Every structure is written in C-alpha cells, then in structure tokens.
Amino acid sequence: MNTTDIPISKTKIVLPRRRPELLTRQRLLDTLYETLDRKLIMVAAPAGYGKTSLLIDLAHHSDLPFCWLALDRLDCEPQRFIAYLIAALTEQFPQFGKRSVSMLNTLTGFEDGGERLLVTLVNEIYDEIREHFVLVLDDFHLLDEVQPIQAFVNRFLQLAGENCHLILASRSLPGLADMTLLVAREQVGGLDFSDLCFRPEEIQALLAQNRHMHISDEEARRLVDATEGWITGLQFADPNLVRPEGATFQPAHTAGLSIFDYLGRQVLEGQSEPLKTFLLRSSMLEEYDAALCEAVLTPFYAEPQDINNLKSLPPSKPAGAAGQPAAPAPAATPSQSPAATPGQSPAPAATGNPTNSTNGATPNAKPTP
To answer: Is 0.70 surpassed by the pTM of this model?
Structure first.
C-alpha cells in the first residue's frame, strides 16, 4: 500500500488545544515529569478517568516537544498505523520522514519488510531528531489485539534512542513482550486509575473553577465516596446532592445524556458479545462475586466457565437448551458499588523516582520557571 493511498487526518496528529475548563493536577504532572526520562511511560485507567486531558495538560506545560497520535479502530491495519506514526513525528519535526515514507511505500508485506522499515524509522529519528521528545499514542487499547502492531511497538522500544520517550494512554495494561525486561532495566514508569482518581481537594478546585461552587471538605469527601474519584461520574453528578445530610450520588443528565448513556457508548459497546451476555446475566445478582456467578450462570453455558477470563467465553447455549430457560434481561445493576464507577484496570509497573540514562542526559521536561 502506497502512503499516498492513506489519507492523513490532521486532527489525529496535532496536539489538542488545552481547554480552559481543564483542571491542572499538579501532583500528577510532577509524577510524570519525574518519569519522562524513561523509555516507556504508561497511563492506564478505564474510560473517563481523564487520561487524555492529563496528557494534554502535560504537553502544554512541558518544555519538551510532544508528538501526538490519537488512535482509532481503523489504525489496526499496520501500514496505516505506521503511516500515521511517521506523520505524527513529521508534524513536530518537518525535517523527518522522507526515508521512512520512502521505505513504507516500497513495503510489499509487513511480515517480510517490517524489520527493515522499523530500522529505517529508528535510524532516521537518530539522524534527524537530536533533542529529547515525547511521542504519545492515545487510546492504545484499541490495538491490544493487533499482534503485528504490538510487536512493532515492542521492537521500537528496544531500538529507539534515549531521546525518544513513548507514552501509551490505554484502558488496559499493554501486553508488550519485553515489558518485564524494560521494568527490570528501570525504563518504565506511569500512572494507573488509583493515581488518576480525583481527591477531595481536586474536586473542590474543579467545582470552584468551572461551576463557581464552593463546597466543604466533608461535602467533597462525600462526592469522592459516591464517585470513587471517577471524574466522568463527577461531571454527570449534581453536586447539590451532597448537601442534604445522608444524600447519596444520583446520576444526572448533561446535555441530554446520562451516565448510563456514556457507559453504554464508551464501555459496553466495545466489549465482545460473550462478555456483553455475561454482563447482562450477572446484572440480576445483588452483588458481583466470581464464585456466585459461576454457580448461578454455569447452566446457561455449554461448558464450565472461567469467570476471570471473560474474553474467551464460548458462545452460550440457545435459549431453552438443556432444559434451561433463557436468561432474563433485568435493568438492575449491582448494588454493592456505585452505578457511576467503571471497572478497575491493572496498575502499570515500575513507577517512582527516575533513573538517569546511560549517557547521563536528562530531558528538560519540567517547564522553565
């Protein structure tokens, strides 16, 4: 495929503007500044935890040049992904890209020519980009199942020079083959959902900044308890609900959309059909418990299920098979946790203090006073 056949959308490779309502979360920026000398920085959390907003804020505050690529499902095609990757680098460094594009245009097959293309790309970065820079791949979870791209990124991290710092923003922890090796070499840092959860003082600052509303420490703690610090849940919540004694979180509507609309479109629609079926059936239970789900739902499946490995669930029995009725479709959600809080994601490995690169160079990531 010739790169001229791949239209490049500018909006995918240009750093998004920083919206005025975005709250600067200094504690998170400070953590990211400290890890920006690593080769790989991961920001992993479920939908709606503010990953993209945080990285936009980081890019606008940092002195380092940022290359940005907003991924979508069409980028699952390897040559399209690489064409956009080259374009994202060229957008920030116009002198870069000629050799990589030329090599991509001559590529007849990714399996045979992928390594040659990757080496050309890394060598051109080495020759043309001498300063430290950050490359952000946003929504990297969309490529979790695309093994050629996972292998390409893994190999890129092996070969890229120390001036290249890759940030992966994802709803899941990337399954890169050499992740453990990178961790052992102290080349990995990042944040997970527990870091991204809003704290009471951040909720107070956000409401004061965007709604000119000032709430007490106790009211802020109630909102944290109700939403578990999930910023999207807070955006849909009515803060006035925390003022009466004993009031609890209730999803509000924003611009005609409810929190359930958001979860349906951003979370549920992206799941596999077997997982959707499991979520529907398990929603009838008062509480979510793997052993309980296994005991109650096993009759609906043709063979025993591993509840902890939902992605591999086989097709369920047809309605009424083996004397079992079809599962009902209740609208109830588990009462054990707030309706506005999505599932948790695993934490990225190896966070903490940075280590110097082998040549002693440390990027000037923090803004100059």
So the answer is: yes
